[in-house]
UniProtKB/TrEMBL annotation:
It comes from Xylaria arbuscula. GO terms for biological process: vesicle-mediated transport. The lineage of its organism: Eukaryota, Fungi, Dikarya, Ascomycota, Pezizomycotina. GO terms for molecular function: protein-macromolecule adaptor activity. Residues 256-272 have a biased composition (Basic and acidic residues). It comes from the Eukaryota. This is Alpha and gamma adaptin binding protein p34.
């Protein structure tokens, strides 16, 4: 099954780690991301995913961060809501410093914490139906501090070593093998759900509930077979009545809407390409409005 207009991956690095971001994206996708104007910031590059269950062309949005605190503040603002709503993945790429206590190490930890803040507060943290990865590029052996830092931020740490390094590590007392590096990142992305939830998807579920409620009403009036399975929200001991269901339905249908221009209302229904273009344009407009010092993104190609 092909996933139409899949959710996006936001891949970020510090402004001085652009070479590591480019390398990781190339290793993930098989092709080098193209710069927009004179910078890699703002580029969009597709990741082709194919599993037993689905195929998807997942756009990766790239951004470079100059000030992590200002970047997170901008992404947690109301104006960034529509960008966050279509994200199915967040990926940080950084160079592993030899000394975690050095200025470089402290800067990397701050980057991780600020992006993690967006994952927790903007995307829902552990309740978010997405994947958060933090790829550390380097050959150091002791990575415990980075694993802990990423875990505290709701992200999975993945070390990316040189090309000659085995892609599997022995894990646990039974010598099980687990993927590492780029293969592990791909595995995590493949295991994710990239489908965008649309109003039609929500509507089909509520139509079933409405149909059963209507059938229950007819049974009460003696107009339907009494042997039909009964669904009475007032007798389920959950404290719900029909008004609760209607309120829940309205709340979910209205989720993500902003003055009638949210993704659920504004998403093109006639094709994946149109949806991808619209999302990319929203991302571009948001980046253009964002304070320049928060990041270096200059547009979306």
């Amino acid at each position: 099954m092909e996933v139409p207009n899949p959710r996006r991956i936001l891949a970020v690095s510090s402004a001085d780690s652009v070479q590591h971001l480019a390398r990781v994206v190339k290793d993930l996708t098989g092709t080098t991301p193209e710069q927009t104007s004179t910078s890699l910031a703002g580029a969009s590059h597709n990741l082709s995913l194919k599993t037993t269950y689905y195929t998807a062309e997942v756009p990766i949005w790239l951004d470079l961060i100059s000030s992590p605190s200002e970047w997170s503040a901008s992404f947690l603002s109301a104006e960034a809501k529509e960008v966050l709503e279509v994200l199915g993945g967040v990926m940080i790429v950084f160079a592993l410093p030899v000394n975690a206590s050095s200025d470089e190490g402290k800067a990397s930890q701050d980057l991780i914490r600020q992006v993690g803040k967006v994952v927790k507060e903007g995307l829902g943290g552990w309740e978010w139906d997405g994947v958060g990865l933090c790829l550390g590029v380097g050959e150091i052996d002791d990575v415990d501090i980075w694993e802990d830092c990423c875990a505290e931020s709701g992200l999975e740490f993945v070390q990316v070593r040189g090309q000659s390094t085995p892609s599997r590590n022995e894990f646990g007392a039974h010598g099980l093998l687990e993927k590492t590096g780029i293969p592990r990142a791909l595995e995590a992305f493949e295991a994710n759900d990239w489908a965008n939830v649309s109003a039609d998807d929500l509507g089909s579920d509520f139509e079933d509930i409405d149909a059963e409620l209507e059938a229950h009403k007819k049974r009460q009036n003696g107009n339907e077979d009494p042997n039909t399975p009964d669904l009475d929200p007032e007798s389920l001991d959950f404290g719900f009545d029909r008004e609760d269901f209607e309120g829940l339905k309205r709340a979910i249908w209205n989720a993500g809407k902003d003055d009638g221009e949210g993704f659920m209302d504004g998403e093109p229904k006639d094709g994946t390409a149109d949806g991808e273009t619209a999302d990319c344009e929203r991302f571009e407009r948001w980046i253009a409005r964002r304070p320049a010092e928060a990041g270096s993104c200059q547009g979306c190609s």
